[in-house]
Amino acid sequence: MVLFFTSAVVDPPVTFYMGRDKVENEDLIKYGFEEDVWFHVDKLSSAHVYLRMPEGMTWDAIPQPILDDCAQLVKANSIEGNKKNDLTIIYTPWSNLKKMGDMAVGAVSFHRNDKVKRVLVRERDNAIVNRLNKTKREVEVDHETERIARQREMGRQKKAAAAEKKQREAELKKQREEEKKAKSYDTLFDEDTYGYSEAPKRGVELEEDFM
Question: b/e string for 69-83 if b means 16 or more Cβ within 10 A?
């Protein structure tokens, strides 16, 4: 089972989720999304809590209210950490999680330590924890099916974006050709109007000019 929470401190609201146990955490490590950010108590056992970032948000510029909510949720789901003040919560993009075959269940390391940030929790904020717990939902997730469905959706979006780009380029090309054609017509019109405004004189007219 995966536990989902909703935080409405921003608009639109964001989703946090975590596994119920270590085994579920293994699946979350394996099947995370690129827009997921992983949170955990530093140097202590705790739940693996993920933020699923909405479009336009980046992991290194997460709004402080969201950080506060997520950090409080992590603290509240750490047996030892929940009792401590001045607790450090670490977070990093899901893609930076590194799982080796000889690691214990639920344990992870990082591909790059410089992509790990920290947020300090001075003390437990019951108002935040209670607010988030009221939104909790338990969902049975088929991670493999979800992964396949997501890949198909991303493929569809990518295909649609490519088609839209191709259409924009075709429209721009057509517009430029029409502008070029219009400019060519304007030049031709100018030559017809001003280049040959007086017909050539005939022989009799030339003679009259010298009389």
Answer: bbbbbbbbbbeebbe
Residue 143 has pLDDT above 60, yes or no: yes
Residue 1 CB neighbours (<10 A): 12
CB-count exposure of residue 156 (10 Å: 0-12, 13-18, 19+): exposed
d(CA 87, CA 96): 22
Please list, in sequence order, all residues whose beta carbon lies within 8 angstroms of the beta carbon of residue 139, skipping any fewer than 6 positions away. 1, 2, 3, 4
In eight-state DSSP terms, residue 195 is I
Q: What is the pTM of this model?
A: 0.75
Greater pLDDT, 61 or 101 = 61
Side chain identity, residue 119: V
pLDDT digits (tens, 9 = 90+) for 144-160: 888 787 777 777 877 88
Strand partners, 92: 38
